Amino acid sequence: MTELEQQLNQIQADAITVIESVRKSFEMFIDKHNALFKRACGRKPDIDPVQHLLGVLTKAHIEEASHIESQAESAAAMRKVFDENLGNEHAQKFEELGSRQFALVTHLWLYCQGYLRMDFSLANDHAFNSATLLSATTFSSTQELRTQFLESFYLGSERSPLAAKKPSKLILWLKSLFS
Fold first, then answer.
1. In sequence order, what are the residues at sequence separation of 6 or more whose Cβ sits closer than 8 angstroms to the Cβ of residue 122?
2. Which domain of life is it from (predicted)?
3. DSSP state of 140
4. What is the DSSP track for 37-75?
5. What are phi and psi of 175, to 5 degrees?
6. In this structure, are residues 98 and 68 in contact, taking their beta carbons and an 8 Å threshold?
7. 85-132, pLDDT tens digit by residue?
8. Which contiguous run of DSSP H or E holds residue 120?
9. In the prediction, which pLDDT does 91 show?
10. Rounded CA gap, 115 and 109, in Å?
11. Which H or E run contains 166?
């Protein structure tokens, strides 16, 4: 097991529901980013590894977003061809690999932000921007994707050792909005 995978397991990010459906993408993510995580931890061993994880996930998110943006036109054209030739029902069975990887990284990134108890409004903005970008190449709505991404943030927040025993009224109210 790699250092990156161990860290993800330690904060229970490997148990995010979406990971089971994209296990291969999860493994690809670990293979691609383990060396960077290991280097970061080695250069600054006095910093908590989960902080290094956040840095690696931030970098991965930027890279995946850039990839999605650069491929948006061709992905939209491919989606249109599928729609026209296969019909909506069958076209939805095809998913671009970059979209899947971007969604995975977004879930992990937001989970880590929640785990570190970072600002909700910033996470909400990140979730919205990622969902907007992703909805252009998938069959999901922006709101649906944003809600799924925020579920990962909340899960990370709940599992955080920094969390109080009792959730704040704000968290309870926000959960009631998205349930």
1. 113
2. Bacteria
3. S
4. HHHHHHH-TTS-HHHHHHHHHHHHHHHHHHHHHHHHHHH
5. -65, -40
6. yes
7. 766 554 444 455 578 999 999 999 999 999 999 999 999 999 999 999
8. helix 120-135
9. 46
10. 10
11. none
* CA–CA dist 71, 165 (Å, integer): 44
Q: Which of 46, 10, 9, 42 is nearest to 26 (CA)?
A: 9
Burial class (CB in 10 A: 0-12, 13-18, 19+), 131: buried
* Both tokens assigned to 168: 């704040």
Q: How is residue 138 written in tokens? A: 């998938």
Both structure tokens of 4: 């990156």
Indicate the pTM of the whole model. Answer: 0.82
For 18, the token pair is: 């979406």
Q: Please state, as a whole number, how many other Cβ atoms lie within 10 Å of the Cβ of residue 48.
A: 11
* Burial (CB count within 10 angstroms: exposed 0-12, middle 13-18, buried 19+), residue 105: buried
pLDDT digits (tens, 9 = 90+) for 2-26: 999 999 999 999 889 898 889 999 9
Query: Contact 137/127 with Cβ under 8 angstroms?
Result: no
Please report where in the chains the tokens 């409004």 appear, as a residue.
Answer: 121
Return d(Cα 14, Cα 4) in angstroms, integer.
Answer: 11
How many alpha carbons fall within 13 Å on the CB side of residue 117? 10
